[in-house]
Amino acid sequence: MGEAKPPSLKYVPTTCPYCGVGCGLNLVVQDEKLVGVEPYRRTPVNEGKLCPKGVSCWEFVQSPDRLTKPLIRKGDKFEEASWDEALDLIAKKFRETSEKFGPKSMGFQVSCRTPNEDCYIMQKWARVAFKTNNIDNCARICHGPSVAGLSLSFGSGAATNPFEDVLNSDLILIWGSNAVEAHPLAGRRIAQAKKKGIPIIVIDPRYSPTARLADTWLRFNPSTHIALANSMMYWIIKEGKQDKEFIEKRTKGFEDLKKTVEKYADVESITGVPTEKVKEIASKYAAAKNAVIIYCLGITELTTGTDNVRSLGNLSMLCGNIGRPGVGVNPLRGQNNVQGACDMGAYPNVYSGYQKCEVPENRAKMEKAWGITGLPDWYGVTLTEQINQCGDPIKAMYILGLNPVVSYPDSNHVMRSLDKLDFLVIQDIFWTESCEYADVVLPGACFAEKDGTFTSGERRINRVRKAVDPPGEAKADWEVFVLLAKKMGLKGFDFKSAEDVWNDMRACTPSMFGAIYAKMEKPESVHWPCPTEEHPGTPILHKEKFSAPDGLGTFFGIEYRPPAEVADAEYPFTLMTGRLIFHYHTRTQTDRCATLHYEVPESYIQINTEDARQLNIQHGERIKVASRRGEITTLARVTDDVAPKVLYMSMHFDKGANTLTNTALDPMSKMPELKHCAIKVEKIQEAS
Amino acid sequence: MAAKGEMFYAWTTNKGLAEKAECGGAVTGLLKYALENKIVDAVLAVKKGKDLYDAVPTIITDPKDMDQTAGSLHCGTLLMSKLVKKYFNGANTMKLGITIKGCDAMGLYELAKRKQVNLDNLVMIGVNCGGSVSPVPARKMIAEKFGVDPDKVHKEEIDKGQFIIEYEGGHKGISMDELEEHGFGRRTNCRRCKMKVPRQADIACGNWGVIGEKAGKATFVEICSEKGADLFNRAVQSGALQAEKAPDAGIAVRGKVEKAMFKLADKWREKDFKGLGEGAARLKTIMVDTSRCIKCYSCIDQCPICYCVECSTKKPYLVPPGELPVPFMFHMIRFVHISDSCVNCGQCEEACPMEIRNSLYMHALQSDLEKMFGHVPGVDMSLPVLALVEEPTERARLSSTGSDQIYDIFKK
């Protein structure tokens, strides 16, 4: 016999907590501890393959930095408290605020990182307890414009086709997406397509790792999408290459579009792209039998976000590329559950399944389902607008799993605003920069410690399975709301499991009614809409008709508008922002993985070789970068991947990109202009 | 009394096991016996997860649970050897029974050379393997080539060059050649594999060569080590296992099957390696393909040769951190460190998120090195040609064995 008792070995198949691709993976548990991640080859999403973040996603779970006890602010300090004490205080303060200042004095924000069940129960609690619609999630600052834009164009705000479906295309047009880094296992599909010989066009101002996969890479001036798309459509129509039958039978508004694009024959002065090149790309897209458009935050995170999305909707419908395999318009959703958080109704104007609050029948239905009266009809306040309203009229705020101080635009503004709140609750797994502004901090459970579901960017509802217990006294987040509801004497929160919460949601959500947990046991799971238990789910949307009430897709004539802040004499450079493969958002998780920290321990900025030469900046040198809102220092990476006068920085670091970014909003979706602002760049002069 | 080198037909006497297991259930029976009699502390084997496309490794300490691991899963593409190192401290402090395919066996030997696995503490039951099919492509193959809903299939097997499925309402077989011509079938590394009968194990088992009335009812067993002989004899003596000498005709059939597999593997090797081109053209192919790398480290994590705590790819002067595309040096380091010992297990390629043909490149290099130096990795304890194996003393000590003799490399 050996000397030691062999450890146990358990593989828990679950879903990666990072991006919206929804990769399956096995958490390896030995003697109640997480010890690693192993491939889950059985899942069709990623076949066991993972990116640098996926393979290391277990490392942060058992970090000694985890929050393990509720904390209550006492003066300048935080003191450990019992759950009872913390929840009593929250219930009391929120009730007082609600009674004194009404439903518009409260703000609720939920992360797209947390499972559907948490999102659903939080919005239910906010709406039931306080009769407010001031609930939003961070889709607002990534794909809010997709939800708005695709809803207007197609009648549904979600991706039309699954990731793997690009392999059925004859042409892949990737626009404003660096999938290889931001959605690596969707990037894999592009790599597969390339091997299959499917032509790939990447439209991006930057020569990104994704652009490197392209057969044709088109550089254009940042944020000039509409002009470029309009010009492509001008040439398609001019040469009679549009799909006339599709336009006739399945759409409306074509004349509006046609009239608008007539002004866009030559857009070189705006986009920097010669007309011949525009014609070439347009003609390739129009000629392909089945062409798919994949886009991401390069399209959405601008004050023209919703219009950019609608422009891609226009382009796809113009060539009849909707409603069958190999076509479509697919936003790559950023976070693991950004699709789901919206689906769950953690949104200021809709309940779960996008049932609008303004419709009296919907309110009546939800009131009946939830056993209450008096649900509000008004459009609630959105995520960053809630920040603007801190102090007046918002007095109390509840933030679940978000770190606004680092991830929202204009960090200084966020900090000043949070300071104005009377009462702030933050529920998270780690102490974040934002916790400094809280009155109560609650310890939540992470993806490895609770059951639930994430809905990926292809509308596939993937199971999240508990592998280990949360640390210390930390609790599954949905349980916290069950306890809060109990303290407040609310009915309809008597849930014993995540599945109970899910079933409560299903009961009032026709598009997901059939998506029972049993259907999610195997990793194929189910794509919503899934209205009945017998329904197989819907991988491809808008097949016979569009999801809009009249069944038609809508063209919009959309004029190009420049970004809110463009380079000028004082701030002569343009800053673009984006993501790195090695980090996720504000790094609360990824920086706690040694392997990821090693790759990129601090922020850097990409600057063009010629610009660097003129400013006498060397590769690796620390430089000063400033916008009208703030100033930072960072390391210069000198490269021709960015064009002259355009710099690129990732958004992951505090005192980084979001110290510089602009809070100007897209009027339709309230998306701040995170991808474009004017900056100046200076060499740091050594003290003499 | 059975001795090393002898061959038998054997079957379990446990009725429950015999029903659940395939072809006599000798593998499960032997491991169960080893566990019951405390020859091992635990058994590391594979069980069915969500369905027959889902192979899940499991550790069994209660002999009653052994039946969970009965039967084979050809859509399981796990590599057991690295799991022993990663999750069981290389079996340094416990005795493990383990079922292994050829690639697992080769991986264990390479890890043992590097002091990462203690073969003395392992009881290895080898199983013949004609190759495995990755689960998602298998489902696609069944849907597209067989025209059967993969969820309706309750049994699959690879027999006589065919992939055969049994499903609600029938069974169907299609020849591997045909499937593989259409891009389906076995993993590409399996097609090139020539380790069909893992004789590095203590006992090598399988169904090839079981003929006559015992066909389908007994397991072909080849005793490969003293340890294996001891286990087999004890199991037979105790009545847990019944056995009879394998007939010459059966041994001949088994040899023929193995030979046919070798021939097929040679064909695939020629095709795959030729497809890579030669010299600068080959290097260019490799450079272009590896330029998609996103540095997930899965190839390293899953590789049964890689074990270094301080990986050279994490030396900033060799590979600058945080850069995409990953500098080619990353892959050059892997080629230099691994290629003489690559056992073509395919894990690096199967785990690669960017569809880089890692296994093919490494195997092609290994094949060239084998021709140059005559070193065959994974078959015995002889030293690698190029790769580092800790200190010179270790080298000397290892080479002095000169055979597949297993000894305790961990004891001071």
Number of strands of chain A: 28
Radius of gyration of chain B: 21 Å
* Percent of sequence in beta strands of chain B: 15-25%
Major β-sheet profile of chain B: 8 strands, mixed
Unreliable parts of chain B: 403-412
Q: Please, how many domains of chain B? A: 2
Proportion of beta-strand residues of chain A: 15-25%
Helix content of chain A: 25-40%
State the distance separating the first and last CA atoms of chain B: 34 Å
Unreliable runs of chain A: none
What global shape of chain B is seen? Answer: globular
Query: With helices defined by DSSP (H or I, 4 residues minimum), what is the helix count of chain A?
Result: 23
Q: What's the β-strand tally of chain B?
A: 11
The main pleated sheet of chain A reads as: 7 strands, mixed
The spatial strand order of the largest sheet of chain A comes to: 5-4-18-17-16-6-7
The topology string of helices and strands of chain B comes to: EHHEEHEHEHEEEHHEEHEHHHHHHH
Task: Tell me the number of helical segments of chain B per DSSP (H or I, 4 or more residues long).
Answer: 15
Summarize the structure in words.
By secondary structure, chain A is α/β, with parallel strands linked by helices. In chain A, the strands form seven sheets. A seven-stranded mixed sheet of chain A has the order 5-4-18-17-16-6-7. A six-stranded mixed β-barrel of chain A has the order 23-27-24-26-25-28. In chain A, strand 14 (350-351) and strand 15 form a beta hairpin. The N and C termini of chain A lie far apart (71 Å). Chain B is α/β, with parallel strands linked by helices. Chain B has an eight-stranded mixed sheet with strand order 3-2-4-5-9-10-1-11, sandwiched between helices. Chain B starts with 6 loop residues before the first strand and ends in a 13-residue tail after the last helix. The model of chain B is unreliable at 403-412 (pLDDT under 50). Classes of the chains: A alpha/beta (688), B alpha/beta (412). At the A-B interface, strand 3, helix 1, helix 6 and helix 21 of A face strand 3, helix 5 and helix 11 of B.
